[in-house]
Amino acid sequence: MAASSAQRMPDTTIDAETTRLARQAQAGSAEAFCALVDLHQRAARRVAATALGQRPDVDEAVQDACITAWQRIDRLEDPAAFKAWLLRITWRKALDRRRSVVGWLKRFAVPPGFLARRSFSEGGSPAIDRLADPAIPADEQLLSRERDLVVTQMIRSLPPRLRDPFLLAATGEHRYEDIAAMLSLPVGTVKWRIAEARRLLREKLARVGFRQ
Amino acid sequence: MTHETIDETIDRVAREWTEVGADAAFAERVRARLAQPRRSWEVPAMAVASVAVVLLVIWLPRAADSPTRPEAPSLAARSLAPWAALPPAAEAPARSVAVTTEVPAPRPRVAAAPRAVVAVADVPAAEAPLDLTVPTMSAGPAAIAIAELNVVPVVRLDVMAIAPIDVAPLDVPELPRINESKEQK
Question: Which chain A residues are within 8 Å of B31, Cβ to Cβ?
Fold first, then answer.
């Protein structure tokens, strides 16, 4: 599928392909639009996961965003900016779900440690590789796992205004300008919030005994 | 990997937070949703709901002033709107002063006294004979103003009084003065 092909493509090729497909989609081609979704669905799902965590409705939020994007594709002024535009819509949809009463209830339904367990259990996770490595002593593996859990809980406890830009930046897929556009914030504020989130995490971790 | 610094751990955990697995079928699901026609009931339901809301917005204020509604308060009564919040006749307090009088003539007209303190509650025009309950909470000697009671014959006038009350009738022959009842004394 194109999701995997997108990973193989160099950035310049992806940009050119995005522009071409976006123009076709604006002309009414649903096929071209689906190819666009294929190219950028992973980034969109990561954005939704930033807002919602690893919840089942991440995919639903991204699908809603895709439907909205298709309905408004004629309003997209710069076809080359399709990805940033789609991600902004996705972020809004994910926030809508996060703020909804149902979303609020679902947050309580996710058991503590769910994220960490998920990352350990899914294929390709570095955590599972590390745990499975017989070369690493068992006590180190346990310590590492415990630290991961604590860090996960600390990130979860951050206020959303700090956690959101921090996690978006952590994906490594967005420039500060893109994050600022997504969150409707000035770039300087985004940079400060990311630094503040990191400082708070370090401080909290030091308080529970995890130091450099 | 186990010797990573705290910063490296934070970055890695944050990256894993948003990590999503490959989903080859995602675009197919979007394609299916795009191809899905809008559910047939959605558009009519939205239209009906919109029209209903508009009609309600138009109708509600009119219904409030509808002539079919029990007699609208007179101008004097409107100016004393806070009295309307007083309990209805059925919930009249025990201290009510019940003054029963016979008013044979239809459409009694009572002009406002100089110091009007009482509003006349809504009076159903269709009901006759009629029991009127006029609430007042005047602290001192006061006059009841009953203005333009466009109703059918009043056979009983109940006055809920906290303070001594004086009724100033006009145009209604032989409407007696209301004195405090024994109960209130």
Answer: 30, 34
